[in-house]
């Protein structure tokens, strides 16, 4: 009798709980995106571009922390296609990451519905095509994750927030660019810089008000420097980190990176140049747009402000000035400083060195001598269905070694809840930009020359910021710390798309032998199957 009553009350409590859970459930947002070719003339000559729902660049996604996004992507191109969500962590859910190691590509005239949550995230992100050289001609867009109403952000709400997708651009078609790379050649230097798919746009605001500029480098290969004539910029956010709000005259943004600044229109009413120009390259390409005061009668004038004369040392110093605001919260109310990442003991160190070897007479790019090749079966599916022979867990060494470069489908095995140190060693004379899917990581150090264990004494173990893409300067190193709290198969790649396409990438398999939905979601029922996974039941 007593037991029944107890059970009954448990039932009532559970029922009430589930009712309140449903009520408190995070919003579902549904999108249908049709991907087609179209024609645009961003550089003055008509060329084929990739449209999403007729738009170039693609639609801007404005969402809120913890929103569930259901995005049905319909591929009307003549080639397999995938979108990846740059900086969205896909917690427990590498099934939705949209790269060839996790997803079968969406074949022409078919579709795939991505289902993912912007769990515990806030900030400025992007999405873009991960297949072939599609990214060169569009299909990308802004993805802004706003704070929930209950979470204060550490800056006043701007009058308007503008999204600026900035990147280098080619007049050459994406297929011709791919052909260059497939035949073992390097890409030529880009033809120009676009801001939101144009060489010129105007951003208008009222004198005295403050505006946010969310800036992302969506280009293929070149770092950019961003500045606004006559105005300073207060940096407030970098890829989801709320940073110490320093003021800058100009900011370097490397390929794949995002940040947001506040700009107060505190100058005399007139129009001002907004400038983005290439950095660390022999040629300087410049795009100018306009900051228009609504009470302005005067169009832009005077010299276009120049980028800083000093290149690498200036940029490295600026990179070191980006620091976490330890008392500010991020997507959740706990202060960023409460993580004390610098006190956690690392379980393993990796040193990944990029190189540009010729393999079989073709220009390739490699990491610790391994140049990655995509398999027909996504690694994640091979892992899930226990399909042997798709990838190797021991081809890539954890530190650089001597010998010839070779091709392999390289996966680095690590354990869930490890805390790793990764050093990107760049012995080339070219700028690097490294991205990790599924995570953000602390960027604890930048240095010149060869990294050694002594380099650790200069690490920032107190207020380094977290981000998802870190630059590595020529003949230099960058060190990051990663808390491996997200099980799955995660792409670590060069954000410089040519390098990624011909081998400068691999996957990190964050693994736990115990199968548990608490650690990783199950394969989605609509997962596309391809390669050796065809016909397997999901
Ligand atoms: C394709 O779209 C339909 C709705 O039009 C949807 O029911 C189906 O799940 C989608 N296919 C995949 C693989 O997501
Ligand atoms: C850090 O964030 C707090 C809000 O938590 C803010 O009041 C403070 O001004 C910020 N400090 C800096 C240096 O940006
Ligand atoms: C797997 O689960 C068992 C039982 O819950 C636990 O004792 C063990 O530590 C787990 N192993 C790992 C690697 O998490």
UniProtKB/TrEMBL annotation:
Residues 1-24 form the signal peptide. Keywords: Glycoprotein, Signal. GO terms for molecular function: copper ion binding; oxidoreductase activity. Pfam families: Cu-oxidase, Cu-oxidase_2, Cu-oxidase_3. Residues 35-148, 161-295, 376-513 form the Plastocyanin-like domain. CDD domains: CuRO_1_AAO_like_1 (cd13846). Belongs to the multicopper oxidase family. This is L-ascorbate oxidase. It comes from Camellia sinensis var. sinensis.
């Amino acid at each position: 009798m007593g037991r029944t009553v107890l059970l009954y009350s448990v039932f009532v409590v559970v029922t009430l709980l589930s009712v309140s859970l449903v009520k408190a459930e995070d919003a579902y947002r549904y999108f249908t995106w049709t991907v087609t070719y179209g024609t645009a003339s961003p550089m003055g000559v008509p060329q084929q571009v990739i449209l999403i729902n007729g738009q170039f660049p693609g639609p801007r996604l404005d969402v809120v922390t913890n929103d569930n996004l259901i995005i049905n992507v319909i591929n009307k191109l003549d080639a397999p296609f995938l979108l990846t969500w740059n900086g969205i962590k896909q917690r427990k859910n590498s099934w939705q990451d949209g790269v060839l190691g996790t997803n079968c590509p969406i074949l022409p005239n078919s579709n795939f519905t991505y289902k993912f949550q912007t769990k515990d995230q806030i900030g400025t992100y992007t999405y873009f095509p991960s297949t072939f050289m599609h990214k060169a001609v569009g299909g990308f867009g802004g993805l802004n994750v706003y704070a929930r109403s209950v979470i204060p952000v550490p800056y006043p709400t701007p009058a308007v927030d503008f999204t600026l997708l900035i990147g280098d651009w080619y007049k050459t078609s994406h297929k011709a660019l791919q052909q260059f790379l497939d035949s073992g050649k390097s890409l030529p230097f880009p033809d120009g810089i676009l801001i939101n798919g144009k060489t010129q746009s105007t951003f208008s605001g009222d004198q005295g008000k403050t505006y946010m500029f969310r800036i992302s480098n969506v280009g293929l290969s070149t770092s950019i420097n961003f500045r606004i004539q006559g105005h300073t910029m207060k940096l407030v956010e970098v890829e989801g980190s709320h940073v110490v709000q320093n003021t800058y005259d100009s900011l370097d943004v490397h390929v794949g990176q995002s940040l947001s600044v506040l700009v107060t229109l505190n100058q005399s009413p007139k129009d001002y140049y907004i400038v983005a120009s290439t950095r660390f390259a022999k040629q300087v390409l410049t795009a100018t747009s306009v900051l228009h005061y609504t009470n302005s009668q005067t169009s832009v004038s005077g010299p276009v402000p120049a980028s800083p004369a000093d290149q690498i040392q200036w940029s490295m110093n600026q990179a070191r000035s980006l620091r976490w605001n330890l008392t500010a919260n991020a997507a959740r109310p706990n202060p960023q400083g409460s993580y004390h990442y610098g006190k956690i003991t690392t379980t393993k160190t990796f040193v990944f060195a990029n190189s540009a070897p010729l393999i079989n007479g073709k220009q390739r790019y490699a990491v610790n001598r391994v140049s990655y090749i995509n398999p027909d079966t996504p690694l994640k599916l091979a892992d899930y269905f226990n399909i042997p022979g798709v990838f190797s867990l021991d081809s890539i060494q954890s530190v650089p070694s001597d010998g010839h470069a070779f091709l392999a489908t390289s996966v680095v095995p690590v354990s869930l809840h490890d805390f790793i140190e990764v050093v990107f060693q760049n012995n080339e004379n070219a700028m690097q930009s490294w991205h990790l899917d599924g995570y953000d990581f602390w960027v604890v150090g930048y240095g010149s020359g060869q990294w050694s264990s002594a380099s650790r004494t200069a690490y920032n173990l107190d207020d380094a910021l977290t981000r998802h893409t870190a630059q590595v300067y020529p003949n230099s190193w960058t060190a990051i710390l990663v808390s491996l709290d997200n099980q799955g198969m995660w792409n670590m790649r060069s954000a410089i798309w040519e390098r990624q396409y011909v081998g400068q990438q691999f996957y990190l398999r964050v693994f736990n032998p115990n199968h548990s939905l608490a650690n990783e979601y199950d394969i989605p029922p609509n997962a596309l199957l391809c390669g050796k996974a065809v016909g397997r039941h999901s």
